[in-house]
Amino acid sequence: MSSIQSVYPLGFPWKTQDPFLFCVYHRDLFPKGNDSQGPHPEHLKGRMIGQDFTVKDGWRMYHGQQVPGFPQHPHRGFETITVVPEGLVDHSDSMGATGRFGHGDVQWMTAGKGVLHSEMFPLVNDDKDNPLLLFQIWLNLPKRSKFVDPHYKMLWAEDIPIHKTEDAEITIVAGDFVETKALNSTPDSWAADPENGVAVWLIKVKPNGNLVLPIADKEVNRSIYFYKGDTIKLGEESLSTEQGANLHADQETILENGGQEAHLLLLQGKPIGEPVVQQGPFVMNTQEEIYETIREYQRTQFGGWPWPKNEFVHPKEKGRFALHADGKEEIR
Q1: CA atoms of 239 and 329, how far apart (whole Å)
Q2: Residue pLDDT, tens place only, 142-189
Q3: Of residues 253, 261, 213, the one with CA closest to residue 237
């Protein structure tokens, strides 16, 4: 029997399965930066500033006015896993936490009962281009965890385990790969319980190489996204780049690559199996909970915004670091 359930084109965002809500792939070839760590003014002509999602000259401004990215905005009821293989992200939030991460780092943030945060893409290089590669994955929280305190942790590139075979390299953001163990997620995450089978793997397969995906529990939803390369075979099925597939996790899948290095993202986990009502950045179980969330956000702003700008960025010479709400600082 084939392990493939379905094959589909990768759109924007990518199609996901429970317990995942959302996955976007951002690839932006940002130009040299100016003194404000944004594009020079001539690069902003012809763009819909504040709502620039159309690729022009290889990049977008998103919601940024001066610096590309996503100025302060709210979340409640789920988690964001932000994987940044290339480029930098400046994070700030309503807890008073902040940081700069990238070049292989991952930020895992539990929004829980509510948080404001910003994710800006500072163009720190003023003498060369500033390419960015970023995945943002939304992982749902079960009803019992919707109102936990917000929290974030860093998985630094130097610490993230990598499983290597003769033909492949698997960067393990979550979910053990054979004998290679993943780092811990945030404590209230659906991924914190190994029984839930959550995995987030970045997979690279050499030209003409192959990889056998480990078998998981029958209840696990497994999706694979082929975003860079030429062609791959999953059993008897051929996939072209910019295609995804849902797989039977309890059946062996042999991935055979073609003549170019293949880059893939795999997401899997047991479904939470609860009602999902989403309105923008809020994910709850009922419509009434959504209405109450909106009312609370309008009333409290989830604690307010402590930073001087909605698109706050750090000085360009600042390195990778994380300052947490409890005052603890990590420097890389």
Answers
A1: 44
A2: 999 999 999 999 999 999 999 999 999 999 999 999 999 999 999 999
A3: 253
- Of 229, 224, 144, the closest CA to residue 188 belongs to 144
Q: Is the pTM of this model over 0.70?
A: yes
Q: Are 168 and 231 in contact (CB under 8 A)?
A: no
- Taking the C-alpha atoms of residue 283 and residue 286, their distance in angstroms, rounded to an integer, is 9
Pair type for strands 151-155 and 253-257: unpaired
Where do we find the tokens 């509510």? 114
Topology annotation, domain 9-51+58-159+278-302: Jelly Rolls (2.60.120)
For the CA atoms of 5, 253, 189, 81, what is the dihedral angle to 10 degrees? -90
Give the whole-number percent of the chain exceeding pLDDT 90: 98
Residues of the chain with CATH 2.60.120.10: 9-51+58-159+278-302, 161-271
The predicted-structure confidence for 112-135, as pLDDT tens digits, reads as follows: 999 999 999 999 999 999 999 999
Among 3.90.960.10, 2.10.70.10, 3.40.50.300, 2.60.120.10, what is the CATH number of 161-271?
A: 2.60.120.10
The alpha carbons of the chain give a radius of gyration, in whole angstroms, of 20
Q: Rounded to 5 degrees, what angle do the CA atoms 19, 22, 28 make?
A: 145
Cis peptide before 315 (omega within 30 of 0): no
